[in-house]
Amino acid sequence: MTAFPKKVRIVEMGVRDGLQNEKAVSSKDKITLINALSDAGLKDIEAGAFVSPKWVPQMADSADVIKALDLPHVNLSALTPNLKGAQAALDAGVKEFAIFTAASESFCQKNINCSIDESIERFSEVMAFAKANNIRVRGYVSCIAGCPYEGDIAPQKVLEVTQKLLALGCYEVSLGDTVGVGTANKITEVLSLLLQHIDKTKLAVHFHDTYGQALTNIYAALSLGIATVDAAVAGLGGCPYAKGASGNVATEDVVYLLNGLGITHGIDLQRLSNAGWQITQALGKAPVSKVAIALHNTQK
Question: What is the set of domains in the chain, with CATH numbers?
Fold first, then answer.
């Protein structure tokens, strides 16, 4: 019998990773979405990114959005790629920073214009600032299963980069299949290696659904005891630096999977689905989530 975790923590990516490529999204829509996600029971929400508005204009209002929220029981995090971003995030009331690198040198260069080692070095200032202000930092590793420029990525490389982020002081590292090329065998191979060296409580998974494998890959991760999963409501998102990458796995679909496995998560599926429909209607599209669509159709 597979030893699944009894409880899974879902980190909601829809607001930042999901909306960073959307041209028409207002601050009001973001605030409404975050409040709706909180009402649905989500306790960990990545609410913005403190990056140059020149590169990601959709995140230029992150400080205004976060300051407009009153959610003392929700862990609001934000991407903070440098010290300036970290300072702005702290001023806005962010409770957790996020830093990001990749297991692929080529992707790292395309994404943040530096090598993997240089990216780790850049984050040392952010980590020192976070420590001084008692802020937790979460790390992300992109391209753990494959890269649009390099193809297959060696699990050993994923291990090395993950260990560097943990050594830097990250409390947890989220492992991203950024282009969604991973399969259950590949994910099992990568995670099995990492779990020989790293405690499972320090690892999370972040899977995109480009080839329709995200839920299967999450099942593989759960079966190895991983208990933190990143997801985006309505399946929002993609990656501007990975051609063809579709959105994150839909939070609704993950919750439905967890319900079927009898795993506790604390999220109200109907409220979550409503939140997804609300934001996608504001964007002029429909949810990608199969569960959201199925729930919607049964209520007609």
Answer: 9-298 (3.20.20.70)
